[in-house]
């Protein structure tokens, strides 16, 4: 085993890897970009080294050499599937904790990976070159839903291809795309594989990942509610055959789309997956430990017959995003953070109270996972855990996830990759604070009535947590007031009221006269970077024309003309960083 390992990542995955390193008595070395100097993963490491960027290959390899690390664990995202990075680590005389660079390059190129799957006898999705629609345009050199667009009509293809290329270039440094037929309402099922350098290749069962939004997984579970032992064996055998054919070593995931007992190869992720905890909980295996032992040259300590699935596990991804505003990213300081606990509950996170959530990185804050003897128990435990997950500051999707878990389709396991999008507003986000009837918070906002500290209204008490505040909700038409406990958290002059797990912010009234944007102004719906400006002052535009393209937290969004008219002032250009609500340009409506 290694003495020192550098973790070339940030956030919850870096913390997760460091936890296993600590358990094995291995020293962990973090890298961090300037905004992360006091981040949770830096505090969790034994040592930390600054780098210019998490994408700076030379700086990270130099940090590993200078800190006398013996190996590098890439986590996921950033450089984890970059074969040049893997090769640079190897060339520096270090051990790469992942598959060989050649296997990464093969599986990272979707066209080559598809050909390899066909050669290994794995079923593949038909190509989209017969002129039929819908099709999907997707990045050749990446995954995770980045650089992917569904096209349902020929006139949409050009814009979708351009957007997919831009997003792929930004995420993976490779703007190549491919086109395949888009299958309506399939399931997304993936198989975890692990291979050692001694010829052993195992699969560790499947994960159901069909609950997705914008091609990003939202909730994952293991095992799939529709996969029986026979189908599991077929899927697993195909995944292992592909891994052997690719010369694969270490952990990886073969992803399929499936329907009616059939499955088709989608891609292979040559790294650890975000959703690996559900596999760990049902198999009892630590995948990071297996990665480390395989990379150290050890044979796998088990055979396929030793792999047993125990119970059911479900994971929910808690994102910094606002469901009530079209799931746009949310940023800001974490005023308060608290994780749930209890039987079968696990949380992987990379934030703490005081963490600053910026638009520079992926919006995932934490993964809340629940395990139980059966699916119903795991669902109930996960919903309860989400209700006790507290993130005050940036808006999160925690309440939305709870509502999604309560949907009858989810309860019944009737899932497909389009279900979340079809449900739309049927999964209601929590109401904004102004919609809460008669919520009296004046007493909490005001100063204490005397100078006596015992008169303070902050809920402090000795020997434990602050006492919960009790507020009166005077509902419309209610004869008697209803009472229920809520939690009150101060934030400067404002106060957050946490009601049934949902934070609502209340601040003293301010004069908002003149605060509204000028008529015709188009504002940034989220903080981020301007990728493209497609118009100029004086240009005539039609309703729906794309005027500005923004990127935030790895998500691309277009700002379009609300009506036909003429462009007035343009306040931004490509490369500008903008805050949410910043005026981008103005459009004077046609007479």
How does this model look, in words?
This protein has 591 residues and is α+β, with helices and mostly antiparallel strands. Helix content is 24%, strand content 31%. The chain has an eight-stranded antiparallel sheet with strand order 13-12-9-10-11-14-21-19. A five-stranded parallel sheet has the order 3-2-1-4-5, sandwiched between helices. The chain has a four-stranded antiparallel sheet with strand order 23-24-25-26, with no helix packed on it. Strand 4, helix 4 and strand 5 (95-96) form a beta-alpha-beta unit. The longest helix has 17 residues, at 229-245.
Keywords:
34 strands, eight-stranded antiparallel beta sheet, five-stranded parallel beta sheet, single chain, 591 residues
Could you give a quick summary of the protein structure above?
The chain has 591 residues and is α+β, with helices and mostly antiparallel strands. The protein is built from 15 helices and 34 strands.
- Main β sheet profile: 8 strands, antiparallel
Secondary-structure class: alpha+beta
Shape: globular
Number of strands: 34
Record the SSE blueprint.
Layout: E1 4-7, H1 11-23, E2 27-32, H2 40-44, E3 47-50, H3 57-66, E4 71-73, H4 83-91, E5 95-96, H5 101-108, H6 110-119, E6 135-139, E7 148-151, H7 157-172, E8 177-181, E9 187-195, E10 201-213, E11 216-222, H8 229-245, E12 250-259, E13 262-269, H9 276-283, H10 287-295, E14 312-319, E15 321-322, E16 328-329, E17 332-333, E18 336-338, E19 345-349, E20 356-357, E21 364-372, H11 375-387, E22 390-392, H12 398-405, H13 408-412, H14 419-423, H15 442-445, E23 469-473, E24 482-491, E25 494-499, E26 502-506, E27 521-523, E28 528-533, E29 540-541, E30 546-552, E31 555-560, E32 565-570, E33 577-578, E34 583-589
Parallel strand pairs: 1-2, 1-4, 2-3, 4-5
Antiparallel strand pairs: 6-7, 6-8, 9-10, 9-12, 10-11, 11-14, 12-13, 14-21, 15-16, 17-20, 18-22, 19-21, 23-24, 24-25, 25-26, 27-34, 28-30, 28-33, 29-32, 30-31, 32-34
